Amino acid sequence: MNLDDIRIEIVRSWNTEEIVALYRAGGWWQDSFDPMEIPALIKGSFAFAVAADSKSGQAVGMGRALSDGISDAYIQDIVVIPKYRGKRLGTAIASKLIARCRDAGITWIALIAEPGTEKVYMPLGFTPMEGYVPLIYRGES
Question: What's this model's pTM, rounded to 2 decimal places?
Answer without folding.
Answer: 0.93
